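Troubleshooting: if your tokenizer reports a length mismatch, compare your output against this known-good record of 389 residues.
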Amino acid sequence: MSAILSKRIDKSLVVNGETLVTETAWNTELDGKHNALVSWLRSEDLAGILIRRNENVAWVTGGAVELRVLTPGETGVASILVTASGKRYYFTTENEAPRLHDEEFGALDFEPVVFPWFEDDTLPTAQKLAGGPLLASDTALPGTTPANLYPLRQSLSESEIARYRWLGSQTAAATVESLQAVEPGLTEYDLEAITAANLLKRGILPSVYLYAVDGRVYKYKHAVARGNRLKNYAMLNLCARKWGLAISITRFVHFGRLPAELEERFKSAAQVNAALLHASRLGATSAQLFRVAQDAYIAEGYPGEERFHHQGGSTGYGEREWVANPRGTQTVVNNQAFAWNPSIRGGKAEDTVILHDGRIEWLTATPTLPVLQASVDGEAYPAAGVLVK
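Known-good structure output:
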């Protein structure tokens, strides 16, 4: 295998007959990531890096590889080695190798390294292939240097954004379909099942279910389902993944007239959300964005509301890559995804957006549902209202 390959993948990304990413664009993305990773290795005097975490495998392969077998697992059934000389390998077991070649790595420029399932020689073999003992690893592995790849993956490429747009629109469609199916008498577990089915049939993996009804919506910020039966008010709060990318969205349905106080809380949450979106600009820090939320709650007549739950933050290859906090030093970059989630005692706004070349682009818009209009300095930032049946 040559040190640097100009062609990283020999196919386009086609979903349901639609080309989302051309072969040329996919190669551009993969080559850029490879070069950035090799440059980082050389700057740190490292011989190579072992990549096992699912989000990093997805990132370095442009979403072409899914190694997850255990759904909640942080790692999958293979490791990737990228060396400072530019070589690329994947390590797996004999029982996994045929499928990984046929369905995951076959179109990519990684060389396989295969061993019996009962003899894992990944580290010594990786050191030999990399030409030195100094390796980084994104998981805890004795004898390696810890690696955090978030700085390399925080700014999304155009082909990543193309995949994200599809994921956002399809997750939003699944959420609307689920919301329309909700009726009084269903349990919180029913709501989970309905939404999971609508996501899975689209090839999207649910990763967070926070489904609550009636009083639990008001009482708990992270209300995991506990089987209560719906009377009047339900929250569908979910995260979902595909190609390693994570989408967040929350929507609500109310049966009967919406209480005036709850309606006002939604309007205020939408305005806090607008303030955060307006402030999500190049160079803004996590701490500055936290203060934006803090000030927006005061302006809406809810001082201190930010203390009851985090307000969201950057997303991408994690449901939250970081959340805004009073001492946060992370900085907004171009082409970065965000999922803000301001909430006020039963009312909430949450969508996934991208700061794309200086403009906020919504990935999870649901125009068939009620929309609340919020604005900052004349700039409109719509948020979802409550579906009333």
